[in-house]
Specification:
Elements lengths: L1 E5 L6 H8 L6 E3 L3 H8 L17 H16 L2 E5 L5 H13 L4 E7 L2 H9 L8 H5 L1 H10 L6 E4 L5 H13 L1
Parallel strand pairs: 1-3, 1-4, 2-3, 4-5
């Protein structure tokens, strides 16, 4: 099984995934961003883009990586990754389904003011113009398709620990 943690940049997916992992027996964290980083290391570089998700190989490589890791290690993969383009999410979800891999898709959500405050005051990464640039695209995706495709976990007044426990409870039923 895959537990996909979606939501905009700065909402707490990485932190929540680390806290969720010990709550799910046999779980591992696989960050799809590492697949993107591998593509970013290709020399000469692939065509210019502001987001590696726009490179066509990224989505099938994420699917194949997840499938191979699950085939090798079993268990559950927790995958924290923002996907705001519906077509990209469909490619990933359909690819995983084609391998018979069930996906629990969660969206970590917070109100815009809280999100902007978290990005501005992030002690690990500091304020990030990239993260700020994704606030509106996330809001648009949330309004148009994303919240209909996932289980929404409102983190506005919730700690990452509480969000991890809520997701674990939902997954373990």
């Amino acid at each position: 099984m895959i537990v996909w943690l979606n939501g905009t940049h700065g909402v707490g997916k990485t932190t929540t995934s680390r806290l969720l992992q010990p709550l799910l027996p046999g779980a591992r964290v696989l960050d799809p961003e590492k697949v993107g980083e591998t593509l970013m290391d290709i020399r000469p570089t692939l065509r210019a883009t502001d987001d590696f998700q726009h490179w066509d190989p990224w989505r099938p490589l994420v699917v194949e990586t997840a499938q191979q890791v699950l085939q090798y290690a079993g268990g559950t993969l927790i995958m924290p990754q923002t996907v705001l383009v519906e077509r990209y999410w469909r490619e990933i979800a359909d690819g995983l389904a084609g391998h018979g891999i069930p996906v629990r898709h969660f969206v970590l959500h917070t109100d815009t003011d809280t999100l902007r405050d978290r990005i501005r005051n992030d002690t690990d990464m500091g304020p990030s113009t990239f993260r700020f640039s994704r606030v509106e695209p996330y809001a648009e995706a949330a309004r148009t398709w994303l919240h209909d495709e996932a289980e929404v976990v409102d983190t506005t007044n919730t700690t990452a620990e509480q969000a991890a426990r809520q997701i674990a409870s939902a997954v373990l039923g």
